[in-house]
Amino acid sequence: MYLIESKQNISLAIDEWINKDLPIFKYIIKSTTAGLLALCICMYFNLAMPQTSVFTVFIVMQPFSGLVFSKSYYRFVGTVIGTIMAIILVGAFAQDRVSFTLFFALWVGLCSVISFMSRNFMSYGFVLTGYTIALVAMPTIENPLNVFTYGIDRLSEVVIGLLCASFISEILFPQKLSNTLLKGEKSKFNLLISSFSNSENLFDFEKGSINYTRDILGSDALRVNSSFETNMKKTDKLYYKRLNSQFMHINTTFFSLRNTINNNKDNSEFINSLKKIYADFEKCLSNYSNSNNLSALINEIKIVKDITKIRIEDEKKSLDLDDFDLIHDFNTITSLFLRLESEIYDYCNTYYNFTTNSDKIKRLEKFAENLKFSTYSDNVLISLMIIRASITLIVVMCIWMISGWEYGSLAILPAVANTLLLSTAPYPVGATKNFLKGAAVGFIITPIYNFYIIPMYVSDLFTLCLFLTPVLAGISLFMILPGKNLIGFGFLLIFITTCSIHTQYNVSFDTFMDMNIATVIGLLFSGLSFILINFTSNIWIESRVKKALSKQIEITTKDKLALQRVRLESASFDLIQRYSALGRLDNKSNNKILRWVLSILEIGKAIINIRRNATLFTKSKPSEISRILSLIRKFFDLKDKNDKEEQMKKIKELINEFEQVHLRSANDQKLLKDIYLDFSIIYSLMKNKEFLPIKGETL
After folding, report:
1. b/e per residue 381-396 (b: at least 16 CB within 10 A)
2. Which of 112, 259, 426, 567 could make an S-S bridge to 583, C-beta 3.0–4.6 Å?
3. Burial of 649 (0-12, 13-18, 19+ CB in 10 A)
4. pLDDT: which is higher, 500 or 580
5. What is the reported pLDDT for 30?
6. Residue 65 CA from chain centroid, whole number
7. Rounded CA gap, 270 and 2, in Å?
8. What Å distances lie between residue 524 and 510, 521, 602, CA to CA?
9. Burial of 519: CB neighbours in 10 Å, binned 0-12, 13-18, 19+
10. pLDDT digits 0-9 by tens, 188-242
11. What residues does 464 pair with on adjacent strands?
12. Is 30 exposed, middle or buried (0-12, 13-18, 19+ CB in 10 A)?
């Protein structure tokens, strides 16, 4: 027995090492090898600053090849644009420091904004366009005639670093994003089935709600970056896009359903009736959990959908639905039940075709290509980022020009880099502190190399690589450990910037200290900017979200019907991610904003359906439709509590009137029924103010 337990423990320990520790070990080997290869190539071609190439390797190196290729591509594009702009600025304003500073500040602010509005590594590319100007322009500002040569040299070193990182990532322990995507889809599918096969996730309101949203934007990011890998089939890419959009639909429906059921959690008879309706679907999913026969599950869901319709009619007759609110809650919940079953049926079908390598997705290729994720932007946040990035640069430039310090220009590089890189990072002040911690490690290690190891033991390129290997491996370890990557980045910044990794050894202690002091000053001013130019308190963020979501209702009621459900949902989820990244939201505020977003999503989708169906009437549409939509839009703009209650009464009366409308055409009558159900959903969600982003309500 003891031997069996020992074998099991050993097996578990080995599995844990393979899954957790081995990938870290592989990453360290890849990063260190690529860095040394880049150093050797730069030394062979006698480039002046091989440390630029080594720095590039560590910045773009990722555990997966697709991520390395993606980040390398955007780094290259950003560096090229930044180099061109640096040459233009130095050529135009080399003798006019004020104009140079103003245009430089404007460019950095613009890069900060575009970076904020972009997704994935495209954001990093725009960071590089601002950072590269500082890298190329500042060292040559005193000798503007050298800017072109200097810029081309730096660009060459960056390209060598990118090529080395990509090459090593592909040939040494290659890991493909396609495999991670596949595991992620399996995990999402299993999570979906397991959570919906337990009715407590819907009906037990004491139990914490499952948050599916964290997988949506992450999966989309992996899919986008995987396009840089050559081993993924086009059909698989289409499937991943479609699966993610369908998963997003289910997520929204689930929260709308849960929130509406929550309106009646104290009505035990009503809740028990809903559980009876859901019981067949729950059993269907539970059976799959035991058998794992996906084709059988799809067939069973199709049968259950018809059974659910019968159950709904039976329970509707057995319940005493004489209350207006209760009637509409029942209509809303049961229609959401049916929609949830249909969406899970479609999701399972798509997943089955994906796992069986079916080419059916090609028939929907044009549709899938239109499933574009939208991003959210906020003019106030954009202005804040422009001001912060521009002022930080101007202040550091002014200190350099006023002081006349020879190394003052070196403070500009870390100030710009830190401000741009951390503009969208959670807790930028804390991130700057981690930068400084890493810099402190660099202060200790770098002088040991500069004044002891390199002059005493390094005699050729081989010995230089030999002695650099431990410190590069240590930086790699910091970069891959969770929560330690910024410490590693700070260590890397100091070591690469001030260590004598040149074609000739030429560093003095005074130079070393001046360069370090300049770097720290730049980081401190950047960190200070995040403290002084930051108004993102919980209250401020919540007010901005309320305004954005109210605007979304206005858009869905007034703009063209081209707005797709996917774009509406993805922009809303992106909004959550944007404000969460600002770093001051606590869990309570995050959950509140999530409820607001999902409620507005459901209302927005219902409005889009109503407007779309309203265009299909054979004759003119009933006037109540436009009147109700107008009242809904105005409801979110009202601030007075009494006015809101009066508005809800008017909406209730008009919906009641709309129910009495009858048209001769069978098709028109069906459209009326569908629109009435959508109005029920809107009303049921709007009456619970806890889940609505009410703007500045006053008594």
Report:
1. bbebbbebbbbbbeeb
2. 426
3. exposed
4. 500
5. 94
6. 20
7. 55
8. 21, 5, 45
9. buried
10. 888 888 888 888 888 876 665 555 555 555 555 566 555 666 566 777 778 887 8
11. none
12. buried
Say if residue 547 is exposed, middle or buried (CB neighbours under 10 Å; 0-12, 13-18, 19+).
Answer: middle
Radius of gyration in angstroms for the set of CA atoms belonging to the chain, rounded to a whole number: 30
Q: How far apart are CA 632 and CA 607, in angstroms?
A: 10
**Measured distance CA(646)–CA(112) in Å, rounded:** 45
Residue 399's alpha-carbon distances to 135, 213, 348, 566, in angstroms, are 18, 45, 62, 49
DSSP 694: -
pLDDT more than 90, % of the chain: 13
CA distance 213 to 601: 13
* pLDDT tens digits along 390-399: 888 899 888 8
- Give strand pairing partners of 698: 640
Length of the chain: 699
Phi-psi region of 120 (alpha: psi -120 to 50; beta: other; left: phi over 0): left
* Secondary structure of 84-115 as H, E, C letters: HHHHHHHHHHCCCHHHHHHHHHHHHHHHHHHH
Task: Name 32's bridge partners.
Answer: none
Could you give phi then psi for residue 292, rounded to 5 degrees? 60, 30
Neighbours of 591 (CB within 10 A): 14
Check residue 537 and give its pLDDT: 60
